Structures are given as structure tokens and as C-alpha cells.
Amino acid sequence: MIQHDLLPEENTLPKSYYQAKKILCPMGMEYQKIHACxxxxxxxxxxxxxxxxxxxxxxxxxxxxxxxxYNSDENSKKGPPMKVLWYLPIIPRFKCLFAxxxxxxxxxxxxxxxxxxxVVRYPADCSQWKKIDDLYPDFDKEARNLRLGLASDGMxxxxxxxxxxxxxxxxxxxxxxxxxxxxx
Length: 184
Prior knowledge:
28% helix; single chain; alpha+beta; 8 helices
């Protein structure tokens, strides 16, 4: 991984996906690979698991090659899929946060421990947070409810070397954590 080489020598970032998987999977941090339509029409799961092409756009589920290599018969399920979604289930990650007493206490810091003097120092001081509290008062009553932010951006991890590959990471940020924890 290039990220490991960019960090200081004493960093603990895993050097490969295999090493990262060895750390995360025993902690209940598994991931699921879900095959998807190359045109982003659908995911091949549940009632669509048995299909070989997208019912909306007609694109093949699997890569098709005429010469040796991948199977040219679009109805067979052989060869690599056209597109794969890596799904990281969120509920086990939230359970891990609340299983640790220190993390569980930090997740309620916005309600129990912050200075509320009218100065905007934390997302809970902002008008958007207060508007959500006004719109959903039942959600606001429970301090353990998680406030989440979602961000996404496309990138090609190989730069200009490969136009066939792109990654679209989706970042989910928990706003409940105090900011000083993020800066440690």
C-alpha cells in the first residue's frame, strides 16, 4: 500500500489488504462483496442473484471476452464480475463502539460534557443540529443516538495509468465524538 510508505516509519498501518483483513475480521469487522450492474442500475442480490444480465439496461453481469480467457457465453456465470461493491456492515461497528465504556461515554459527550455558552465550537452548537432536534424531538431525547454525516468522491487509485478502474469510497462520519478525540 502506498499510504503505508508515506507515513513515518513507526506507523502501524497494515502494509497490505491481507494484513488489514487479518486485523478486522476477528473483531467482527467483516465485509461483503456484492456484484453490481456496470451501469449502476442494480445489485445482483436477493431476487436478482440468479440473473446473468441487468433487467434494466441489459448489461452482462460478468466480463465477456471472445478469445481465450473469460467465457463468451453471456448466460453462464464464469469469469470476474463487471463491477463489485464492497459493503462494510455498519451495525457491528456501532456495537463495537458502544461495547467499549470509554467510547460509549464519548458518544454522549455532546449532550453531557460540552460547554454550551452560545459559541460554535462543536457540530451540536450549529443551527443544523438544532433544526434536526426540533424536527425530531424523540430522536433528540436519547443522547446515545448517533448523528452521522455521509461523503463520497470518486478516484482512480492508479492515476492516469488505468482508466478501467475507479474507486468510489463512501465515508460515514460520526458527529457525536468530541473534536479533541479526532485530533489525538
